[in-house]
């Protein structure tokens, strides 16, 4: 019996910008449903690797496969960036509705789906507000709802909480943890925060300084069921994982 196709397969990938090797060689296999966090210092190639998985760039060497095929920009993966990148001339609901339209959801079904998605990210009452009328943390929730609107099995997140204050960041980390568990999607999350990596990931991969290579690849086995965020962060296992990742980074 053959093993299931991995969600992402990265085979000896290298990427260069001119004479500078930014990444690689890197070899990673990401099973479907896993929450993988890429962590490392600035400039280690985390975001470059994410762009290769999204299909925005092609590797200088090696091969990237998403669900068995070469990645195509805008297909196969939902994307959440550090900046929400919402359309300011549309309402909150209009931004999510646009993603549903591109996903081929019939017009008559979109209002209910917009409501469901905004409810999922904790924004049940803001559909008719303009994007500039809500906070930065709420805008990132809208960006997440927009990414979830497209039924792609893969979600890519490039430091989406980096510009937020600490309290908002922690609230959104917990929200994302719950949303990802409920959706069952494969997630690849980029961060330079060790605490964030251990809190979110079911697996953490730490990259070296440029050129980025895998320095640590560790599964994160934490008692998450029925455990709130503060209790999880106080767990001895959390402290041990954080120390292991921090010593590598």
Task: Provide a descriptive summary of the structure in words.
Pfam families: ABC_tran (PF00005). This is ABC transporter. Keywords: ATP-binding, Nucleotide-binding, Transport. Residues 8-234 form the ABC transporter domain. GO terms for molecular function: ATP binding; ATP hydrolysis activity. The chain is α/β, with parallel strands linked by helices. It folds into two domains: 1-77 and 153-249, Rossmann fold, CATH 3.40.50; 86-151, no CATH class. The chain is built from eight helices and nine strands. It has helices at residues 46-54, 92-102, 110-120, 136-149, 166-183, 194-200, 229-234, 236-248; strands spanning 8-17, 20-30, 35-39, 61-66, 78-80, 154-158, 186-191, 203-207, 214-219. It has a six-stranded mixed beta sheet with strand order 5-6-7-3-8-9, sandwiched between helices. Helix 2 packs parallel to helix 4 (136-149) and helix 6 packs across helix 8. The longest helix has 18 residues, at 166-183. The mean pLDDT is 87.
């Amino acid at each position: 019996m053959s093993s299931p196709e991995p969600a992402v397969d990265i085979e000896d990938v290298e990427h260069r910008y001119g004479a500078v090797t930014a990444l690689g060689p890197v070899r990673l296999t990401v099973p479907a449903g896993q929450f993988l966090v890429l962590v490392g210092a600035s400039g280690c190639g985390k975001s470059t690797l994410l762009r290769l998985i999204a299909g925005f760039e092609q590797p200088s060497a090696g091969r990237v496969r998403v669900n068995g095929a070469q990645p195509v920009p805008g297909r196969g993966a939902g994307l959440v960036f550090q900046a929400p990148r919402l359309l300011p001339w549309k309402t909150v609901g209009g931004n999510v509705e646009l993603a549903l339209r591109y996903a081929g959801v019939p017009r008559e079904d979109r209002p209910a789906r917009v409501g469901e998605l905004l409810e999922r990210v904790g924004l049940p009452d803001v559909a008719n507000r303009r994007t500039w009328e809500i906070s930065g943390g709420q805008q990132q929730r809208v960006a997440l709802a927009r990414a979830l609107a497209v039924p792609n099995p893969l979600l890519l997140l490039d430091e989406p909480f980096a510009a937020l204050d600490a309290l908002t960041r922690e609230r959104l980390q917990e929200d994302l943890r719950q949303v990802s568990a409920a959706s069952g999607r494969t997630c690849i999350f980029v961060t330079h925060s060790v605490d964030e990596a251990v809190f979110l990931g079911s697996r953490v991969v730490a990259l070296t300084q440029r050129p980025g290579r895998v320095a640590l690849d560790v599964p994160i086995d934490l008692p998450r069921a029925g455990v709130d965020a503060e209790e999880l962060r106080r767990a001895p296992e959390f402290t041990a994982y954080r120390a292991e990742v921090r010593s590598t980074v």
